[in-house]
Design goal:
The chain has 640 residues and is of the alpha+beta class. The protein is 56% helix and 12% strand. It has helices at 56-60, 79-98, 120-131, 143-153, 159-162, 199-211, 216-225, 227-246, 276-283, 295-312, 330-339, 353-383, 386-423, 430-445, 448-480, 504-523, 526-546, 560-570, 575-581, 584-608, 610-635; strands spanning 5-11, 15-22, 30-31, 39-41, 43-47, 51-54, 66-69, 108-114, 138-142, 165-171, 176-182, 185-188, 258-259, 262-263, 269-270, 273-274, 319-323, 346-349. The strands form five sheets. Strands 1, 2, 3, 4, 8 and 9 form a six-stranded mixed sheet that branches. The protein has a five-stranded mixed sheet with strand order 12-11-10-17-18, sandwiched between helices. A three-stranded antiparallel sheet has the order 6-5-7. Helix 10 runs parallel beside helix 11 (330-339) and helix 12 (353-383) packs antiparallel against helix 21 (610-635). The longest helix is centred in the middle third of the chain and has 38 residues, at 386-423. The two termini are 22 Å apart.
């Protein structure tokens, strides 16, 4: 069955949120609701009549006899943990299907987040556990990747930031993860045991409130006998914390307090409260879970360690993204900015951290599917022989474009100078002239100027013939996936004097073609054909007419070929005759006369070397495939 939607399931230690993205659309994902709310406390309750309840309903429904909160952790073999996770996810899945918010079954692909520090084996084990909830298609991906994708697609990241170094700081309820995204690759910055979560602040508020409660002993007994009451009281502490960090300025007054409330019964109340002074004490008190360091010191130490690890890699992040519900705590912004100051590193806290991961996970799922389909479309182009046919079709035009400038260059740089040397008696015989012509022709063809001429013609051929036909194949793919057509195009033209870093592979194709043309002209008999043309048609027989008697050996008549050979090797025309026999004007006229013949010889010689051109076609095809593959990797991030 076709996958129609991707579901981003952010099962957090403190809160859970779910979002949905339609695969064949680039519209933003939509948040899904449970109990008419887009975010739910991660809570699972049992009611004797209503069965399992999740989120707020588990907290407020009268008659709930069991309540579990904040149960996300690395997968392990604890049966209670496994049952809690599996039951929570199964209940969420059932409620979403019953409310018709998702298709379910094979049509829905769930992307569930995990901390970046989890190993691949942790993710695999977590995925197996979640599949026990009855969801057929699940993929577990790092939450940092979701944060990056949400920032990218929500328009918070420019392309230069996307391909640069981005540090993601995800402050969750149970952990704080640091992930470097460099050139679109994720690199978790591992600090070993990571227990730095914001729920530790909740627990500190809980411990402080319980220690100061006038019915402390009674409460401890109640919590021991009825653990769900303790869970509710811990949630009241969390509410007080969140209220405080949402309105810090309000609670800077010693008489103002952010409060939570939980009623144990009609006589016993649990009312946690904090203000600025109290919160500073809590944030700076030693916590056993953090090795008896305070929360603030531990966070600051983690930032320092992250910076040191990045410095060893020679990396200064261009951007620092903050996400996770606890990233709303303003002091974390200040510490991040202090450790990674602007303008080298820009700080970007997510405006909706409680929804960021769910939305990002849905986007990651859609992106994965669309990116795979995009690669498949390009691979079809590779396997269809389309590129080979495209290049093959334009080879005659390449040959035609080369013959005129090569002819002009050979005449000016090889033929004329050699004839001038013979005219001035610097060359004795026509055989010597032949040797000189071959040497000059090969020398010039290997020269920088000749290579530049060939380079220019090949570049023009590539830009005007190959690229438009290639664009006709790649543009529809770009339109289908709604990315700029330029993503799979070369530049409109290749400037042979300028190697664009993005076009190195394109220029390699060009260099391959230039080298090939030089070798074909020199090694394929083309130069020899030019020599024959000049000596036979324009010098040998005119000399034979003048010196006919001297080319008769012992009264034996020579055939035409023999006469040519004897004249070429034996006749040394006197210097005083040469200038009149071959004046400057005659040299110019001869060059003008042989030009069309020389062009014809060059064109025929190049066209005849089919085997060599087949090799060129194959090499250019491979070069184009390599270039397009590189472009696919660089532009794939643009897919939504």
């Amino acid at each position: 069955m076709e996958i129609l939607e991707t579901i981003g399931f952010d099962l957090g230690h403190g809160e859970t949120a779910v979002a949905k993205a339609i695969v064949e659309s680039i519209d933003p994902p939509q948040m899904l609701e449970i109990n008419n709310k887009k975010n739910q406390i991660t809570a699972l309750g049992w009611h004797p009549k209503l069965g399992y309840l999740v989120g707020e309903q588990a907290l407020i429904q009268a008659g709930v006899t069991q309540l579990t909160i904040s149960f996300k952790q690395k997968p392990n073999n604890d049966p209670k943990y496994r049952e809690t996770i599996s039951t929570f996810v199964a209940t969420y899945y059932r409620l979403l299907k019953e409310s018709k918010q998702l298709e379910g079954g094979e049509s829905s692909y769930f992307y569930i987040g995990c901390p970046s520090g989890w190993s691949i084996s942790d993710r695999i084990e977590y995925q197996k556990l979640l599949q026990e909830a009855g969801i057929p298609q699940i993929n577990v991906v790092p939450e940092s990747r979701a944060a990056f994708m949400q920032a990218k697609e929500a328009g918070k990241l420019e392309y230069d930031k996307l391909v640069a170094s981005v540090l993601i700081v995800d402050i969750g309820s149970s952990t704080t993860d640091f992930t470097l995204v460099k050139s679109l690759e994720e690199i978790p910055i591992d600090f070993g045991s990571n227990t730095l979560g914001a729920s530790l602040i909740d627990k500190a508020i809980f411990a402080r409130t319980l220690a100061n409660h006038e019915q402390k002993a009674l409460l401890e007994k109640v919590f021991q006998e009825y653990p769900h009451h303790q869970a509710r009281c811990e949630l009241a502490c969390r509410k007080a914390k969140e209220d405080y960090f949402s309105n810090e300025q309000l609670y800077s007054d010693p008489e103002s307090f952010a409060r939570g409330f939980e009623s144990i019964n009609e006589q016993i109340y649990f009312i946690p409260q904090v203000n600025k002074l109290m919160m500073e004490e809590i944030l700076n008190q030693p916590l056993p879970e953090l090795g008896h360091h305070s929360w603030v010191r531990s966070f600051s130490d983690s930032l320092t360690e992250a910076k040191e690890k990045l410095e060893k890699l020679g990396i200064v992040p261009k951007l620092l993204l903050m996400t996770g519900g606890a990233s709303r705590m303003k002091f974390t912004h200040l510490l991040c900015q202090e450790m990674f100051p602007e303008p080298e590193t820009l700080l970007r806290p997510d405006p909706e951290p409680e929804r960021c991961i769910a939305l990002g996970l849905a986007r990651v799922g859609r992106w994965d599917l669309r990116a795979a389909a995009f690669k498949e479309e390009v691979n079809k182009l590779f396997s269809s022989n389309t590129l080979k046919g495209l290049i093959q079709r334009h080879i005659p035009e390449l040959i035609e474009s080369l013959t005129n400038p090569l002819t002009d260059g050979l005449i000016v740089n090889a033929v004329k100078p050699a004839l001038k040397d013979w005219q001035k008696n610097k060359i004795r015989t026509l055989a010597d002239l032949e040797t000189a012509l071959i040497s000059r022709a090969e020398q010039w063809l290997k020269s920088e100027r000749a290579v530049q001429i060939i380079n220019n013609q090949c570049a023009s051929w590539f830009s005007n013939k190959i690229q438009p036909d290639l664009a006709a194949q790649t543009d529809p793919i770009c339109r289908k996936f709604q990315i700029p057509r330029s993503s799979l195009r070369f530049q409109d033209s290749i400037d042979p004097n300028f190697v664009n870093p993005e076009l190195r592979i394109g220029d390699a194709i060009l260099a391959e073609t230039v080298g090939f043309i030089v070798n074909v002209v020199i090694g394929g008999g083309t130069v020899a054909s030019i020599i024959t043309l000049i000596l036979t048609g324009h010098l040998t027989w005119p000399i034979a007419l003048v010196y006919g008697a001297s080319v008769m050996a012992a009264g034996m008549e020579l055939n035409r070929k023999s006469v040519q050979e004897v004249i070429k090797t034996n006749v040394d025309v006197p210097s005083w005759v040469r200038s009149s026999f071959l004046s400057d004007k005659k040299i110019d006229d001869m060059c003008e006369q042989i030009k069309p013949e020389l062009e014809k010889v060059l064109q025929e010689q190049l066209t005849a070397d089919q085997e060599a051109f087949d090799k060129l076609i194959s090499k250019v095809e491979q070069g184009l495939q390599k270039t397009l593959s590189t472009k696919v990797q660089s532009c794939i991030i643009l897919i939504q």
